[in-house]
């Protein structure tokens, strides 16, 4: 029993939130929050360094009794899939702090506390090996996120916060019922690993699959339960958008990977066509919606729906390339869309408009900013050499192998994304300098650079040399796939 | 009855005797203490309750039947008595300053609360429909008077009158059921009832009797269709009494319902179906009507109806886990509800009533600490983890699904999503609006202590539910 590394990773931000409550000075709060998130990232890097990529077993496991009467444990552990997301969450954590450095100027302490609590809970979700613990973290996130959107958001923040809260709550409550049903079928245990080995009757699996689907589909979000997302994204402060796009949306897909696929393999195989169809719908419909947007943030928000469609498409292709591509795309989407929201936030701080027609010629007044915008736009449309290309290619090849129509729809979605992203870039960055003249935009400063640069590095790193990232997940994905296919082929 | 039996009986009912004696002494003491000495009453009353609690603890080790089967001191009653003690002591703490502000500073207030407490304790221990009736009436008579304690306020008088009339009707219904039971089985003892039934347990006469008794009890916990008094009485009563009524008498009502429903006679009939319908309708009505309330006390009244509905789901489950889940629910509900009421009571100061939700706009800006507490209580009432409110609901759902009532569980969670809306709306008003006025809460050390205690309970039980779960389960299995 060595150092409880995962507990440290989860509880560092939580403890930091408590420490922040003691401070009075806003600057002290900012610097401390930054220090805590950087420390957390360092812990995550240490975790990755000690991570054994050759096994699918859970690593760094910690198990303690919590509510033994009901078989609830405090159990943490990670495999390759969770390791990637734990790392991503920690990576975006300190970027969120930097993104809110000047953007948040009222109730700074409360904001940073919410942010840190949020981070602790998100890390808890990815590390949890107990369904009850998972659910507690999953659901408790509603509280800080509700406050982040509702207190520090834009003009329509109250409505957006409400909508976000109620959609997610209603979805998760059915998940809770599913969890309890699973608990009784699995012999009164909440242990995720023990529950994956069960042979549930097909009809039970089907019911559970749909109970879980509602919860996860709301989080992803899949069409038609996506309508909370544009509202929440547009109204949330930049850091909130980054968290939403970067981590929160991943949790739905993570739920499919951790619960639906291994615990309900027969149902997953049986309903995979339905899921592929829903994914294809999200890809095309999200793309079309994005094409029609004049608001920068809305455009990125709708493009998220489309991009998350790729993720679910890859997952439910139920083959190795699809799954690996889907998971890698989750990571990529976190990096790229997080960065795009960050860039939108930076420009909004300067001009206080997100209306695309207001912009133009940004390249002349803010060349460094525009260069970054170009990079992340290209990454978002999956140009070769960027991270999304690798992921999208894997998803497409997996998708075509699984279902020709779904693959074709995904190609249409990829074309659409090129259309709306290039159109956006043209209208914002090229042409005569309209807004620059009116507002005298400053280019990115050092602090902003510190937030963007690491994301840019990851865009190129994954794009040019994805092997280390695929290596992390590889063994776990193979194991997951074997679990699904051996059990699920019966149907 | 021999002298030893009498002694044993007296011993088993020692806590009740302590409370009643204490209340009588306080009644006399009240005439001797001068004006402005309100704290004497508070501390004397608290001392009485503490002595009773000590007595209860000493007797908790074994099951003691008393008074020829009319009364029992067992684990079940001990659990409930502690819920009552907590509710009463916290009500005393909250009352001190509030009573000053409202001008209701008199010893009778505390005496009546103590008598109500003794009534509740008798209810929890009653094993005979008659002793149960005595406890019930002792409790409600005191709450009738307490509801009308704001003599100069028409609203308070009206509430009391309404409460008395409707309460009397429900009592009559209950008594009618009892008389039917006695006529059909020749006994009023809960144990004897099932044994005395020789023929078909689904005899229509017995069924009718059960329905009447259930109707009488359902009134006390404010479940549909006997809920109409709740909003008006809660709104009209002094807020401290509202807080007390939403927790203590409600828990007492559930104690009785559980005792009656664990009875084989009722268990054999199809009463659970009726109860399931009551639970669904109660929760739906409470949740949906609460959505449109502007008055904080009325909103909490409807919220308490909704919570009663959720707890009744635990009664429907009926198993040992179901019973334990209701008990745990009530303990947790007392914590969070007294907490939120504590805030409303504290806001009553000067010309400020603190009863309108909009009054709280921007509260988070002026009093971040108190706003955070409200946030905790409200999210707990909404059932969001990691607060205790979540665990309360979770355990009820576990009990329901254990018995195979998955559809009921789904209905319960969907309705609690509706209920979440109005709690979150209050959070919105507190956190996301600009302040309209300066706040000057009546924050005495006693109120502080109450808020700290309830917050600790609300968070503590949520994070570490094991011990409390064992207590509740032990009270069911052991008793």
UniProtKB/TrEMBL annotation, chain A:
GO cellular component: endomembrane system; membrane
Primary location recorded for the protein, binned into one broad class: membrane
Alphabetized GO MF terms: NADH dehydrogenase (ubiquinone) activity; NADH dehydrogenase activity; ubiquinone binding
Gene Ontology biological-process entries: ATP synthesis coupled electron transport; electron transport coupled proton transport
Limits of the NADH:quinone oxidoreductase/Mrp antiporter transmembrane domain: 128-416
Record-listed E.C. numbers: 1.6.5.11
Subcellular location: Endomembrane system; Membrane
Membrane topology: Multi-pass membrane protein
Family stated for the protein in its record: Belongs to the complex I subunit 4 family.
Protein's UniProt name: NADH dehydrogenase (Quinone) subunit M 2
Species of the source: Rhizobium etli 8C-3
UniProtKB/TrEMBL annotation, chain B:
Subcellular location: Cell membrane; Endomembrane system; Membrane
InterPro entries linked to this entry: NADH-Q_OxRdtase_suN/2 (IPR010096), ND/Mrp_TM (IPR001750)
Residue intervals passing through the bilayer: 6-28, 40-60, 66-95, 107-126, 132-151, 163-185, 205-229, 241-261, 273-292, 299-320, 326-347, 368-392, 404-424, 445-464
Top class in the EC scheme: translocase
Entry's Gene Ontology cellular component terms: endomembrane system; plasma membrane
Family as reported in the entry's similarity comment: Belongs to the complex I subunit 2 family.
Subunit structure: NDH-1 is composed of 14 different subunits. Subunits NuoA, H, J, K, L, M, N constitute the membrane sector of the complex.
UniProt xrefs under HAMAP family: NDH1_NuoN_1 (MF_00445)
Name used for this protein in its record: NADH-quinone oxidoreductase subunit N
